[in-house]
């Protein structure tokens, strides 16, 4: 749908029925004013790069230039809810939130005249100022009037309320109150003055335009970044020299604001310089204070926003920020980030802080969703192996089954010996998934001491086939010879006459088949083949599956 | 990339940057408490017609008024509550009257005593608020109701409240039609600068908007306008340092061709450039060399309290920090605005300190000769070109024996040595007589100190 469509930023109906401009001149001006209002308001609804905004900009340009071309000087009078052109209402919107007239009127704008020869750049500046009012930006520094004044637009003429003036119909005598003394500078302020030579002659001396141009260059927009960085450096020096109170939130705020401004403008080079100048600051404690402060969540947000589309890694200039980034902020962000690309990047940022930040990551693990916890737990185990046991223990204490499963996995990967009694207690966990996983882990990381517990479960407790298989494989892993003996006894149970094998016998047989897939040598294979030939249905399939696993060498699947 | 795409990008960046420049928290607090203050005052004045002042119905709104005022005092210092037509403003911030009929009616309530605005110079205890309300509740005393109310309040011990007359909106057209009195503009600027100084000294956050509006008005009148300088020479205390430095800095800046935005920043910086002295403890602050060395940094420190990013803030801080940095400083040259302030300030300070012994022209001539050591030579040249052979304020002995005081900067190269002047009282040197154009004669015999 185009920008004129329903449900757009243009859903206001600025010129109400009966108030619509009647004259052709009024209609032309009305089209321009409405285009201005729509374009300005669109920034509330759309990202600045949206195609709709482009179309609205185009409309504003066309309608405004057309009106001025047709009418010459075009004065727009602003009332609280109307804009008029030579007495004719060309815009009316009673909605305070949406009304262009209201927003400018309340800031003191009373008339804006588009002059012949007004340029697109000036129309754009006007739009920018109006858009600022729509996006609810109320800077202490400026309002619409001061913004328009300093924009110095020769193609526009502004009449605005500049303030209040006394307007007494009945003037009264001055009170004669003694004015307050106020705060005064000390005696001898601004002295000693420099010692000057005797006066020289005074005469008019021409100054070339080139010299003036060079003088002004230092105050140009382009030079401002240099000025801001230089100011940052000098403020740091002053803070050290003048023993400013510490911690100094104001100073930190300056650097945070500068960082934000540079990121907003995509000025990554100067951003790097910002980090460097702080890093080179003389006083270590101030430096650390600022560097720590700069690594807040906002930096992370801005860095992520500044990433080029499709980027899978940080640009080199932004890498300078990595050591500064607050890990907590990164973890906060990671916990909520939805975009896979950003999530992967955040994960990289966090992992890059390991092993130093292992404890912080460890603390956060229980709060993360399992996939993320797994990724971080893996990272922890790889980069801080000494923490793996702790990771496992911590996750096992959680309620969430997926997290507990990740805890078991972390224990399985932990170097050195792992504590077995806590794992054995999990053999009676209510969750089949947990029990199965713990059996697998015991098989991989346990020793012969856990055999009795596994055998006991197998022999005395009703368990699902998958768990029984895991038990069989675990036994084979833990003690192949001993397990082989058990399996031999279980593989062909002698069932009672006409009744067949008991449930326990079947369970043991099932475990034996799974376990034999893991035993070395040809004999287990031969026995499995023979059983497969004799068995029926499920048991035969189970034997064949065990053989297949065995051949693939992936019996632990 | 086409120009529309560029425009889109530019707008997006600008809006993003502007949002980064906001101190929403502070603005919101000031606005909310301002609205509460105006609403409560209006409500209390209305209630006073219905209830006796000792009625318990006053308790809650009086307490709320006192609370809002105390909060605002803490945030902005002197609180100016002004009603213009049916709008109310707190320190130039418009208060939203939507859904708050009391704010719309405030002007009407105050007007009964010919009052248009109230300035609160300090927080008020609840009994004091009641006495304020009692004062307004009384009948308007003709022929000067505001004066009578002021006296009554004074008698009742309400001494921190200042009453103002009725206001109307002043538009930029008033400037064009000459309805703005340059002396009044300078007076406003001086008072605002003083308030900003006090606010910063008291540890508050710098609020540049009122000063920016005042400076914008001076720029609209014209930094080299003879009327503005005439007003400064003849109707202002010229020893008021901040305004003097601001006027000279604006003259110099406009001579350098600075754009209006940068000129505004320069003017605001000039009005607060010495605030570091206040930050070091007002009257007891360090003076002499140590104070001289420390106050630019201290000034920057207190001005850093202002939140929000803007080009203006950077320029202002840079200027304040640099305003005593010499042209040949081994640490590097000052910023342009800092260098302008250095020149303007030294010129004004030499007059302040040595004005009884040397003339303005001598100061300018001496500074010119010292240019490359202390000042940017190009700026000195511009200052000389702007102030002329007889800078504004110079006491002149004319060839016909009369005395006059120069009141205009240079109008054009031809009148470099023949400014506009006002005839002076021969005894006091006060400019009391007619305005004369020395280009039309008589000749200047010599300049006199003082």
Describe this structure in words.
The complex is a heterodimer of chains A (557) and B (450). Chain A is mainly alpha-helical and 557 residues long. Among the domains of chain A are: 9-160, no CATH class; 357-419, no CATH class; 430-557, no CATH class. Chain A has 26 helices and five strands. Chain A has helices at 24-45, 51-71, 100-106, 120-134, 144-151, 209-217, 221-241, 249-264, 268-279, 284-294, 297-306, 316-319, 327-336, 340-352, 358-364, 370-383, 388-396, 401-413, 421-425, 432-445, 451-460, 465-478, 480-491, 503-516, 523-534, 537-552; strands at 74-78, 82-85, 88-92, 109-114, 156-166. Chain A has a five-stranded antiparallel β-sheet. In chain A, a hairpin with a 2-residue loop joins strand 2 and strand 3. Mean pLDDT of chain A is 81; it is low at 1-18. By secondary structure, chain B is of the alpha+beta class. Chain B has 19 helices and eleven strands. In chain B, strand 2 and strand 3 form a beta hairpin. Chain B has three domains: 24-164, no CATH class; 172-384, Hypothetical protein af1432 (Orthogonal Bundle); 388-450. The longest helix of chain B has 24 residues, at 24-47. The radius of gyration of chain B is 25 Å and the shape is globular. Chain B has a five-stranded antiparallel β-sheet with strand order 3-2-1-4-5. The model of chain B has no long low-confidence stretch (mean pLDDT 88). Chains A and B meet through helix 2, helix 4, helix 5, strand 5 and helix 6 of A and helix 1, helix 2, helix 6, strand 5 and strand 6 of B. Strand 5 (156-166) of chain A pairs antiparallel with strand 6 (167-171) of chain B, so a sheet runs across the interface.
């Amino acid at each position: 749908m185009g920008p004129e469509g329903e449900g757009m930023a243009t859903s206001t109906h600025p010129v109400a029925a009966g108030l619509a401009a009647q004259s052709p001149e009024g209609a032309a001006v009305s089209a321009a004013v409405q285009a201005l209002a729509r374009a300005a308001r669109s920034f509330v609804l759309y990202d600045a790069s949206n195609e709709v905004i482009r179309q609205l900009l185009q409309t504003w340009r066309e309608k405004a230039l057309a009106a001025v071309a047709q009418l010459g000087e075009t004065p727009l009078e602003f009332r609280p809810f109307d804009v008029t052109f030579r007495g004719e209402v060309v815009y009316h919107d009673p909605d305070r939130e949406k009304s262009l007239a209201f927003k400018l009127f309340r800031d003191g704008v009373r008339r804006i005249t588009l002059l012949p020869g007004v340029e697109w750049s000036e129309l754009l500046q006007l739009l920018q100022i109006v858009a600022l009012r729509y996006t609810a930006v109320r800077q202490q520094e400026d309002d619409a009037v001061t913004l328009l004044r300093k924009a110095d637009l020769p193609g526009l003429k502004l009449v605005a309320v500049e303030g209040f003036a006394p307007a007494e119909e009945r003037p009264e005598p001055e009170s004669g109150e003694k004015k307050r003394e106020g705060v005064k500078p000390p005696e001898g302020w601004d002295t000693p003055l420099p010692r000057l030579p005797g006066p020289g002659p005074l005469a008019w001396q021409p100054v070339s335009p080139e010299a003036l141009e060079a003088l002004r260059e230092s105050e140009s927009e382009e030079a401002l970044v240099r000025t801001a960085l230089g100011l940052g450096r000098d403020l740091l020096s002053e803070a050290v020299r003048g023993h400013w109170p510490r911690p100094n939130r104001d100073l930190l705020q300056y650097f945070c604001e500068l960082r934000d401004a540079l990121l907003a403008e995509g000025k990554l080079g100067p951003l790097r310089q910002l980090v460097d100048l702080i890093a080179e600051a003389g006083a270590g404690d101030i430096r650390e204070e600022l560097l720590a402060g700069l690594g807040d969540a906002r930096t992370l947000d801005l860095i992520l926003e500044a990433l080029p589309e499709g980027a899978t890694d940080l640009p080199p200039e932004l890498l300078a920020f990595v050591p500064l980034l607050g890990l907590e902020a990164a973890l906060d962000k990671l916990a909520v980030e939805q975009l896979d690309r950003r999530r992967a990047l955040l994960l990289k940022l966090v992992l890059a802080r390991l092993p130093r930040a292992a404890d912080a990551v460890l603390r956060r693990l229980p709060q993360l969703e399992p996939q993320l916890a797994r990724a971080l737990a893996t990272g922890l185990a790889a980069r801080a192996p000494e923490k793996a046991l702790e990771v496992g223990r911590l996750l096992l204490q959680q309620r969430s089954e997926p997290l507990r499963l990740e805890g078991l996995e972390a224990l399985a990967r932990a170097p050195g010996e792992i504590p077995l009694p806590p794992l054995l207690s999990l053999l009676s966990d209510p969750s089949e998934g947990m029990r199965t996983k713990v059996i697998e882990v015991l098989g991989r990381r346990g020793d012969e001491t856990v055999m009795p517990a596994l055998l006991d479960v197998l022999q005395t407790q009703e368990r699902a086939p998958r768990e029984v298989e895991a038990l069989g494989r675990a036994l084979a892993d833990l003690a192949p010879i001993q397990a082989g003996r058990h399996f031999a006894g279980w593989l062909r149970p002698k069932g009672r006459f006409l009744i067949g094998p008991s449930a326990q016998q079947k369970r043991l047989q099932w475990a034996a088949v799974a376990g034999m897939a893991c035993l070395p040598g040809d004999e287990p294979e031969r026995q499995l083949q023979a059983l497969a030939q004799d068995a029926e249905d499920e048991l035969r399939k189970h034997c064949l599956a065990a053989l297949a696993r065995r051949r693939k060498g992936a019996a632990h699947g | 990339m086409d120009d529309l795409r560029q425009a889109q990008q530019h707008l997006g960046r600008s809006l993003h940057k502007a949002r980064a420049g906001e101190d929403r928290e502070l603005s919101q607090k000031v606005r909310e408490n301002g609205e509460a203050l105006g609403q409560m005052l209006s409500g209390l004045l209305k209630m006073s017609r219905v209830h006796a002042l000792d009625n318990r119905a006053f308790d809650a709104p009086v307490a709320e008024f006192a609370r809002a005022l105390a909060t605002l005092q803490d945030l902005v210092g002197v609180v100016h509550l002004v009603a213009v037509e049916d709008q109310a403003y707190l320190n130039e911030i418009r208060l939203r009257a939507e859904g708050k009929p009391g704010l719309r009616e405030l002007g009407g309530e105050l007007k009964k005593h010919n009052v248009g605005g109230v300035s609160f110079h300090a927080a008020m205890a609840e009994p004091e608020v009641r006495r304020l309300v009692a004062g307004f509740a009384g009948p308007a005393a003709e022929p000067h109701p505001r004066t009578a109310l002021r006296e009554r309040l004074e008698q009742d011990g309400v001494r921190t409240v200042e009453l103002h007359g009725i206001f109307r909106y002043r538009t930029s057209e008033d400037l064009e039609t000459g309805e703005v009195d340059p002396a009044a503009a300078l007076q406003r600027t001086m008072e605002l600068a003083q308030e900003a100084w006090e606010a910063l000294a008291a540890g508050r956050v710098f609020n540049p908007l009122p000063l920016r509006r005042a400076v914008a008005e001076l720029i609209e009148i014209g930094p080299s306008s003879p009327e503005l300088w005439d007003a400064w020479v003849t109707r202002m205390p010229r020893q008021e340092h901040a305004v003097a430095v601001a006027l000279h800095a604006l003259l110099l800046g406009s001579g350098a061709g600075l754009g209006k935005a940068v000129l505004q920043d320069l003017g605001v910086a000039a009005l607060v450039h010495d605030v570091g002295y206040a930050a070091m403890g007002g009257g007891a602050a360090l003076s002499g060399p140590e104070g001289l060395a420390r106050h630019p940094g201290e000034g920057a420190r207190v001005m850093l309290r202002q939140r929000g990013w803007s080009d203006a803030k950077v320029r202002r801080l840079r200027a304040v920090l640099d305003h005593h940095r010499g042209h040949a400083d081994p640490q590097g040259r000052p910023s342009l605005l800092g260098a302008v302030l250095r020149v303007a300030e030294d010129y004004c300070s030499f007059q302040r300190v040595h004005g009884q012994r040397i003339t303005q022209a001598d100061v300018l001539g001496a500074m010119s000769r010292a240019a490359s050591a202390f000042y940017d030579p190009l700026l000195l040249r511009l200052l000389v070109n702007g102030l002329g052979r007889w800078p504004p304020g110079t006491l002149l002995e004319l060839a016909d024996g009369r005395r006059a005081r120069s009141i205009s900067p240079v109008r054009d190269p031809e009148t470099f040595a023949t400014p506009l002047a006002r005839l002076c009282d021969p005894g006091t040197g006060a400019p009391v007589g007619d305005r004369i154009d020395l280009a039309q004669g008589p000749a200047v015999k010599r300049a006199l100190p003082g």
